[in-house]
Amino acid sequence: MKHLTPVSALALLLAPAAHAGLRFPCSTLTIQRLDPVVQPGSLPSAHLHHIVGGNAFNASMEGDVGERATCTTCQMSEDFSNYWTAVLYFKHPTNGSYHRVPVVPVQPLLGGSQGATGGLTVYYTQFDLSRDNLKQQSVTTFKPGFRMTVGVPTETGKPHVGLRYQCLTGQSRGPELSDFPDKPCSGGIFATHHFPACWDGKNLDSPDHQSHMYNTINRDGFTNAPACPASHPVRVPQVTFETVWDTSKFNSMWPSGTPNPFVWSFEGKAGGTHADYMFGWKGDSLQRAMAKSECFYDGCGSITKQAMSDANRCTVKDFVGEKTDGWVDKLPGM
Ligand SMILES: *[C@@H]1O[C@H](CO)[C@@H](O)[C@H](O)[C@H]1NC(C)=O
Ligand SMILES: *[C@@H]1O[C@H](CO)[C@@H](O)[C@H](O)[C@H]1NC(C)=O
């Protein structure tokens, strides 16, 4: 939201629902060491993930996820996709013990989190937050079996554009940062992952899970992606995750003037932030939503929604069975 002045934010609030784009909450499905994109079949995978979405989630996932899943933690009831990121931990500055940081729902500009528990907020945008792209460039949605990642855990410098942090205090999200905040944030740490908008149109995946996609976005925030290159000509919806890590209960254990004590679950700092996407919308439901100008934010007539109280009942089994909560002397799998 960094590029919105208060006046344009107000204009957005008052705008008629005549734009194409989706934004909706998904509750936490599970927190486990599984990664069906990067380490399919590994039970467990190398590090811990926070996962939302459909109950077809498993150590490996092939074929049409939208046909196999029977429930989803996402508000859009035809969306059986899975969305996941690493998990944030607090590393005690003096004794070195770790404690998992809880996730809390994002409080968006329009509407509340509608009863989500934990989880993250997902966006599928066509242009930016307030306009659609139907006249400029049509958007083609993903195919069954499609998957992609953004970011790499081995990155120790700055994460690339679109992978950012914000320090939440009161009503303010503050500026977008390419590093963890250097002071305690009373409202937690806000993490954003923007995925690329251009697909090669052929491969559902690639060896690095990224080269079938191309990122033409060169600015932070919800900006329209510049035209896709000939190598990756298919314009797909711009997928974004927003997650709020509630760091507040650890702030008193962060001595003033010392480095940020939070680490990602692969023992990584800010640069290694990454996210995974496994497409799983049922049938042509996402394409229908993207092709209609009526579909904007939560007011989307052409696809069905469920109450978050129903979404919250969707679960998967604990495949790994290890302790990830409370004080632990090492990160799960490390
Ligand atoms: C997970 O995948 C395995 C291997 O494909 C399969 O046998 C099992 O039934 C799946 N479990 C669930 C709960 O979907
Ligand atoms: C580290 O400090 C925390 C908070 O006081 C405590 O709960 C935890 O048990 C400590 N770990 C060790 C190894 O002493």
Automatic annotation (TrEMBL):
Give the signal sequence positions. 1-20
Keyword Ligase among UniProt keywords: no
PANTHER family under this entry? DUF1996 DOMAIN-CONTAINING PROTEIN (PTHR43662:SF5), PTHR43662
Ordered alphabetically, the record's keywords are:
Signal
| DUF1996 domain ranges (all copies) | 35-281
Matching InterPro entries? DUF1996
Kindly list the residue ranges recorded as spanning the membrane. none
Annotated protein name in UniProt: DUF1996 domain-containing protein
Which species is listed as the source?
Periconia macrospinosa
